TrEMBL record, chains A, B, C, D:
Transmembrane segments: none
InterPro entries: Gfo/Idh/MocA-like_OxRdtase_N, Gfo/Idh/MocA_oxidoreduct, GFO_IDH_MocA-like_dom, NAD(P)-bd_dom_sf
Residues in Gfo/Idh/MocA-like oxidoreductase N-terminal domain copies: 10-135
Residue ranges of domain GFO/IDH/MocA-like oxidoreductase in the record: 145-276
Name of the protein this chain belongs to: Gfo/Idh/MocA family oxidoreductase
Pfam hit, one: GFO_IDH_MocA
Gene3D superfamilies per record: Dihydrodipicolinate Reductase, domain 2, NAD(P)-binding Rossmann-like Domain
Length: 378, 378, 378, 378
């Protein structure tokens, strides 16, 4: 991490109360590099739970209503400068708007919103705001993912032809939502998750990762979505064919019903000179294969890597960095951007999220029409 | 290998002269378990080359013309009982017909023929023959593939939902055919290879493997084929969506232009209870993951495996068996079938090959029509 | 991490100024779970550097002299409660004594001291102190290491027979100390590192890990130490035979001159019923092999693991946790121990460190005598 | 395999009747490349079993007594030219002598003999014979092992400093010999196996592999042998420290009681410039790590390998070759040596075996004396 002025940004959080998964991840991420101080939160819309959660975390100012929080924090001299939104998808847009309209910077979990219409509306609000927006596509902040992106940009793969990306899990193989599991309930509820299930939850990550590394985006998609579990309203698996703007083709497989897969996000990119391969579950390695030469195992923390990887790496090679470190990289770089008034081209923005919603929407539409090639649009 | 009467079958070979790859593989396979004696061959259509090849191999009777060979061998008392066909695809049908019409058993490399029409014609000839037919889909004869198939049949995966199969190579990344490389020349020539390139050459293997293990076949396919190299007339990469008769869905990726991949055939099958994963390049292992339990690494040669695996395994666990051993399993089982008048349900037949040609044909048609779901047909 | 009262412990640090590696690691570890607040430091014995380092970190009270720091902090009402010692080895003893004598808790990096004599003296001081002592053998705090230990204790391996442990690096293959590299300079200087080089620096970790998991300790060792690099005064590689109190035998290999190894700490333990295998560079997995059954791949974050692993795990399976998280586990558990007045049996103590010094001393002695079996002693 | 005159050598076999493991391996190996014809055998010392075994294998001439076989075969014009000895260790010497004295070439399994005295006596007989001798240290014939040896010779690792070699199995974890298992019975019987158990059976392989690749041999050893199973007379595990003639040091671990290990022979060699790593269970790969560069994964069958690997490789990269192919390489090269009157420097000879017996003997002696450094001698 590059050196930045030692001042902690005042941070708030919406969502992320007791029992939440991603809220805790954001808090670890905010804390690791010491650039934020969590001072306010609307951790739950239930009063007691919000209070209890705030107290357990030692957060000074607890709110129940995010609108009230945005209003009051914007009026305090020591009010929050940044808010992290870690609610279910359907609240991303209204919460983000509330803070952006008051020029409070937003860190928002993905997907951007529940629907494309919301995403467009949010986009307009953001344009009118002085505040900045970070979408936490955390996988794109792993050092070896950054290295991969740099390699593609430098032409080390030649012209990109083929992209295979996949994100497989197994936790929704059975009807976990019917057991009351909080994570499963909202993700399988169209009112909270939006128009897509698996495609929105993890397909969007896989798609962003592929675009981020290959330095392109899809121009059209053809999807076959499935919903394997009885009574499940949203998709839990997707096979999506991709055609990219740079001429490459590819396939995206996302599944939450594939037994034996925990969080198996894998990206492979092939050009006419070389190929690369990266696995999120062993993130400190990147396999690089030049045609006709032995495959090379590039590993985080080594002197032969580019600045792109080195700048988001904390400890020496062989000491594994993981998911929290990658997540923290986004927080760290966003703090740096805010404090130094620079722009970091690697950070996922609201535009990234808007494009992601177009991808999700086109995929759902394609599948509903038995597999048409559907343009993603602009 | 189970004990069989010690008599060597008299074997002939068509194709496989100097410089051939797959002909040599067939000879290794025929020799390993000592059930065949190679006594005649039409190893090349060029007289000198045929003679030279036969002499180098110590083959007694050398022919130039496969018709003459079929005729004369069928008339000898000590004539061949079985012929191996290891020519380019377009010769499979005429050669096979010549021998089947004379009731000589046929071992034929894949794909069955160059076109579906040829496959149908060959099928009719075979029906009228007393002879038997083996198609060398060798990957289905690896012990751990047999184990996988047995596990699916026993219901150890539950209901099959998802199949991901891929076969990636890199040897055609550049225009090898223009350098005169014999293997590349005929595979990229429609007159010799038939209607498909990569899909026919390796996609057909991947598809057969998936069907063999999951104990089903596709009812419709949707394909996006590519031909990446300038001047190449046939496809060198394919992304194919699959819908299977048992309700499962899947994806098949075949590529001969993916740098870093040698012969990377990988199969993953997921049911509602468990998943399995197998890689051809580490064939002695099968990963088996029951939902909620630690993944298990099943390995060839262990007492906990089924007869399905044990019966095609030669040496103790930890002593790796490879490609030649799997190939030899087909030869061994075919010999056993011929000598004992039993039927081995695991052996790929002419019907397997005919279905494979339907798959290839439907994939090409789908891609030519920008990705339609095309029924495979019967 | 189990729930603890939300109060941050006031933390100080000795060593860890600009350019230090392990000091930064300790700070990450202290911050991650929010149980400490770093408020004072003697980060360097050079005044300017100490000041600059403290400022960059936002540390309120900066000292140059650790004695002065111990004295003054012990007199403040808001003085530090805990100090982290991250100096070269030869300062561990005097610094720790200074704080222990004032009943300030100590977190100290390994090895305990530079010599066994110092370790004994420190031990006496500690006995007379009210304060507690944590030795940061961080590898023993990985969730899957805890699982391994629990499995051994439950008898899942049967009687332990054989232990193979190794810790290989390559960063000292050439004479890095002659280039002025700070980490290399003090580690290869007997005045700062103590009586051993590689054995003290990483051999001590490997040995502690083996004892921790196998729930035993060596009763005698036989060592062959090497110093491969011209002019290097301390060992940079060690092969050590081990005989344990529980009757097991084993081997420890530590090397800092093995090209291709970054931080390759690997432990294998075999009993008469099962074996386990763990690699620090892929720490989220533990291979468990019951004789005659398929190997199992136990992975962090799954429901089938014991509390021992679950209690030191933060995020769901498939989201890799790494080195910093494991290090932070020690800080977190030590905070919990201090705040709740409980004793965590998994935490490495001063006694652990004293035994470690006996191991180092016996190994050096054995090697100096061309490989005698040397008792470790008590 | 290079081209050789097409004439099959007449082969005999002593040992290897029904139920034998290694005899069958030798037959596969002899058959694969078609350079041998098995025409005579003394497959068992029991008449019925010998007859039955010979018949099942289609062997023309069956003997019960190896002396009679040697005598009669040497007198026939069409008598065997080569004999394979696949008996328990104690018969290696007398059988080999019987054939060598009649100038019949010998292929003999390892270890050379049951005792060093026998080895010396055999050595003298061999010197007086016109016949040649091959010791089947098959692991040294894997293509990637040959590559490793070539790399060391070319100086690609720099000066060799450290060698770690291990060979772990688990099949003797319990007292298999008491169940009547044929393989276990003779290997744990000093009268048949000789002075060592595990060290002789697999330690000898590991040691030969290390010496073969590193192009050196040990000058002294220090061993700690164990016999873990009640009633077992010979060692079943060994930790052996090594000092080599070229100045390198190392460690050899051999175990037959390590649950989870099938045939885990692993070699790692480190020089002052680079390191290599090879695993017998994934034999088509060799990891090569130059200090400061990404590790490379060298794989069999690629154009970037040396002739040393290419000349013992049959099929393209990605098509795994295994144990039988490596074993067959020895048979193939020996045939070539016999037929062309050349000398292949890679083939293990009687001198290799004699040195191996010195290693075994020194290891046993060292352990019996509680770990002395014992010179291996010449």
């Amino acid at each position: 991490m590059s050196e930045i002025t030692k001042r902690r940004l005042r941070l708030g959080m919406v969502g992320g109360g007791e029992g939440a998964f991603i809220g805790e991840v954001h808090r670890f991420a905010a804390r690791l590099d010491d650039h934020y101080e969590l001072v306010a939160g609307a951790l739950s819309s239930q009063h007691d739970k919000a209070e209890r959660s705030a107290k357990a975390l030692g957060i000074a100012r607890s709110y129940v209503d995010f609108e009230a929080m945005a209003q009051q924090e914007s009026e305090r001299e020591d009010g929050i400068e940044v808010v992290s939104i870690v609610t279910p998808n359907h609240l991303h847009a209204p919460v983000a708007m509330a803070f952006l309209q008051r020029d409070i910077h937003v860190i928002c979990d993905k997907p951007l919103t529940a629907t494309l219409a919301e995403a467009k509306a949010l986009s307009q609000v953001a344009e009118a705001s002085q505040a900045q927006f970070l979408l936490t596509h955390n996988y794109s902040a792993y050092p070896m993912v950054r290295e991969a992106r740099a390699m593609v940009k430098e032409g080390k793969l030649g012209n990109i032809r083929s992209i295979q990306v996949e994100y497989a899990q197994d936790w929704l193989t059975h009807s976990l939502e019917q057991t009351g599991n909080k994570q499963a309930v909202w993700r399988s509820d169209p009112a909270q998750a939006g128009l897509a299930g698996c495609v929105g939850d993890i397909g969007s990550h896989a798609y962003q990762l592929a675009c981020f590394v290959a330095n392109t985006q899809a121009k059209e998609v053809l999807a076959d979505l499935s919903s394997w579990v009885d009574g499940r309203l949203l998709d839990d698996e997707a096979n999506i064919l991709l055609r990219f703007e740079n001429g490459a083709k590819g396939h995206l497989w996302a599944s939450q019903v594939a037994p034996g897969n925990e969080n198996a996000l894998t990206l492979r990119v092939y050009g006419d000179q070389a190929g690369i391969e990266w696995h999120q579950e062993t993130p400190n390695e990147l396999i690089y294969s030049v045609l006709g030469e032995p495959s090379q195992r590039l590993r985080r923390g080594n002197g032969y890597l580019s600045d792109a990887a080195a700048s988001v790496s904390r400890i020496p090679s062989g000491h594994p960095e993981g998911y929290l470190e990658a997540f923290a990289n986004l927080y760290c770089e966003f703090a740096e951007q805010l404090l130094t008034a620079t722009t970091n081209p690697h950070l996922p923005t609201l535009a990234t999220g808007l494009h992601g919603m177009r991808f999700i929407t086109a995929s759902v539409y394609s599948s509903q029409n038995n597999g048409l090639w559907v343009p993603i649009g602009h």
